[in-house]
Design a protein that fits this description.
heterodimer; A: 218 residues; 10 helices; B: 205 residues; mainly alpha; 11 helices; 77% helix
Chain lengths: 218, 205
């Protein structure tokens, strides 16, 4: 055999045994350069072994501090990503939609306190147009759809970096709220439409967390 | 799945056959940790924290900063564990995180000591570590000094190879270098180390 530094390294590290080790040792016996190199490699290994043995034990509080920090992360969520900041929680979305409906209802039913006041009439007319329940829900749904399409596109760009099993798990994760969206999609009932928006919000929130996490990976 | 659970719940020191090979055990622990099992994450910490601590100690040359670096490394690892592609390659992945933590600490130090870069270099690169001084043996002290004389990147590559036993491909992945550069840097680091240790090795002979 010829001189092979990497085999010498493996021999010095104790990674070779049997016939392979014997073959290299035979070569070393007849090769001064390899004998010298092996001497150095064994000296290095011995020094490193001694250094490892002399390493003081880890301070016990190290693990405690890590668990404390992990606990803080759970108790105090990190600064939300741009998606988390943008996407309202499902509760907030539902509450906002409900509030708008109440306001709309109020505008429609409030008696005119000054029916002959032109400015007031114009303002109420604009409010009726702006706060139409169907219009508000349609607008919210459009925004959710646009955001979801953009986020899914970003996820698809990052998805290739995930191990197949993890990607499958994430796909499954996003499947549930997405199903909720599909179940209520096209509903004319207000409650159904609120549930639809709720499904969008949940889906966006979950997907947003994953995309944000993938985007900060090196 | 049941076999994995049984093996994981058995003390690692008890050699009760059949036993998972270390890489399978590691993968199983990673999977459990990703699923939210805190005990599995603690087991991963116990398996690798000492190596990560030694690596950061070699780079930072400061015990307190190295401890902080270990904390930061494992907190980040906990958050990103689900993205680990090769679950049996956890240690190289942890070293890559630790290396980033080291560079962030280095940048912070440089900002703090912007007006005295020379003193900073002296502090980081040339002083023997307290650990080396405490060993008290000449060769160990020489080793500490020789490592401290290397630039931090070359030192990182060398200790990953000769202390932690990583192969050249793994080191290339951690350092973000081509394989040829890894081999070249480690070769040069070894020559530098040997020039300091020749007395020790000569005396041995």
């Amino acid at each position: 055999m010829s001189c092979d530094f990497e085999k010498l390294e493996a021999l010095a590290a104790g990674e070779l045994a049997g016939a392979r080790a014997q073959e290299i040792e035979q070569h070393v016996a007849g090769c001064a350069a390899c004998r010298d190199e092996l001497g150095w490699l064994r000296a290095e290994a011995e020094l490193m072994q001694r250094r490892r043995a002399a390493q003081p034990p880890l301070r016990p509080e190290l693990w405690q501090r890590i668990t404390q920090r992990l606990g803080e992360r759970v108790a105090q969520p990190q600064r939300p990503s741009r998606w988390q900041r943008w996407v309202p929680s499902s509760m907030v979305a539902a509450a906002a939609a409900a509030l708008l409906l109440v306001l709309t209802h109020h505008v429609h039913r409030t008696p005119d306190v000054a029916p002959d006041h032109e400015q007031g009439l114009a303002a109420r007319t604009t409010a009726r147009q702006r706060l139409s329940p169907a219009g508000v829900l349609d607008g919210a749904e459009r925004e959710y759809r646009d955001a979801l399409a953009q986020l899914r596109s970003e996820y698809q760009q990052e998805r290739g970096r995930l191990p197949a099993a993890v990607a499958a798990r994430y796909d499954q994760l996003f499947g549930a709220p997405a199903c909720s969206v599909r179940l209520h999609e096209g509903s004319s009932d207000v409650n159904g439409r609120l549930l639809e928006l709720d499904g969008y919000a949940t889906c966006l929130s979950s997907l947003g967390r994953v995309v944000a996490e993938l985007q900060v990976q090196p | 799945m049941l076999a994995v659970a049984i093996d994981l719940d058995t003390d690692a020191s008890a050699a009760a056959p059949p036993e998972l090979p270390p890489s399978s055990l590691e993968s199983a622990l990673v999977r459990r940790a990703v699923a939210g099992d805190d005990d599995a994450f603690r087991r991963l910490f116990e398996r690798h924290a000492a190596a990560v601590r030694r690596f950061l100690g070699d780079l930072l040359r400061d015990d307190s900063a190295a401890d902080e670096g270990v904390q930061e490394t494992f907190v980040r690892a906990h958050a990103r564990l689900g993205t680990l592609r090769e679950q049996d390659k956890l240690l190289p992945w942890l070293f890559a995180i630790a290396r980033n933590v080291f560079y962030e600490e280095l940048r912070a130090r440089r900002r703090r000591a912007a007006n005295d870069a020379a003193a900073l270099d002296e502090e980081i690169d040339r002083s023997p570590s307290p650990e080396g001084l405490l060993m008290g043996r000449e060769a160990d002290t020489l080793l500490g000094e020789a490592l401290a004389e290397l630039g931090e990147e070359r030192r990182a590559a060398l200790v990953l190879r000769i202390d932690h036993g990583l192969d050249y491909d793994e080191i290339a992945g951690i350092m973000g270098w081509p394989l040829s550069k890894v081999k070249n840097e480690i070769h040069r680091a070894r020559l530098s180390l040997r020039s300091r240790l020749c007395k020790y090795v000569g005396d041995k002979g």
